[in-house]
Each structure stands twice: as structure tokens, then as C-alpha cells.
Amino acid sequence: MSEHKHENGVCHCKSTVAAQSLTEMDFDRGIWSAALYNDIGRLKDLISRGHTNHLDETGYTALHYAARKNNITACELLIRADADVNAKTNGGVTPLHRAAMMGHIDVVKLLLIHRADAKIQDSDGNTAAHRAGQNGHHAVLHLLLQSDESLVNCLNNRGQTPLNITKS
């Protein structure tokens, strides 16, 4: 956009530019934004093109984004299209971590049914149970501990169990 001002036949333009980086443009056009914003039509199209497990620059898949936003329909579509339920970001975070930290119990259940590994630890040593506890999502924490009782004793890099760091 620009602002035009004419003086004595001379145009003095003040230009303002809305810039978007190539990374942002790639995200907006990719499967990640379709999953994040629950754009099911676009998601189906991108899945049909083989984009199911494409990674963004930080290692997130579309399933990470759908799980974070509690977009259960998007999660189901991606899982049916063979999305990796245990895909890890550059920091070791899985879709289960993302759903647990946000308290999305239905997505957590869906991921567990489809063999998400609740024992996976991120780069801080936290499991999805740690993330649920840190954020005060007691029902999700309970579900995860029921899915694998050994998680109750799992230590993160600070020597904490999920119950040690649970907010009341």
C-alpha cells in the first residue's frame, strides 16, 4: 500500500509494505495451517498429494498442530492417512505432548488408541504426563498414568516425576 501526495506535479509517495517471510508463506500454504485452522477440505487435498508427514522448519507435522488445537476431525483424517503419531519435533515433542499440555483429553485418547508412545521424553526429559501435570490438566494426567503405570516414576532432566510438577 502507498500513500500518494502530489505537489507541483511531483508524486511524493510514502510506501508501507506488509511483509511475510518465505517461511510464513510456506506455512500458510502448507498442510500445517490446514491442520491448525481445521480447514478439512484443504487438509484432504494436501493429504491426497502426499503431504501427511511433511515437517515444518522446527520439525512439527500437521498432526502436532491439529493436536495442539484440539481439531479432532483433522487428527482423525491425518491418522487414517498414516500420520506418524510419534513424530518428534527438533525438541523431541510429539503430538501427544502437544495435546496433553493443552488438556485436550479426546485427542489424547485418540492418539493413545493409535499407539502413541506415552513414554517418549522431549529434550527436557518431559513426557506428555509431565506436560499435562505442569499445566494442571489432572484428567489428562490421570489418563496417561493409567495408560502406562511406569510413567509415575519417570524422571525428567531435573529429576522430577509428573506428580512432582503437577499444579493443583
Automatic annotation (TrEMBL):
Family matches, as Pfam families: Ank, Ank_2
Native source species: Pseudolycoriella hygida
Sorted UniProt keywords: ANK repeat, Repeat
Source organism, top-level taxon: Eukaryota
Record lineage: Eukaryota, Metazoa, Ecdysozoa, Arthropoda, Hexapoda
ANK repeat residues: 58-90, 91-123
UniProt name for this protein: Ankyrin repeat domain-containing protein 39
SMART domains in the cross-refs: ANK (SM00248)
InterPro entries named among the record's database cross-references: Ankyrin_rpt, Ankyrin_rpt-contain_sf
Coiled-coil segments on the chain, per record: none
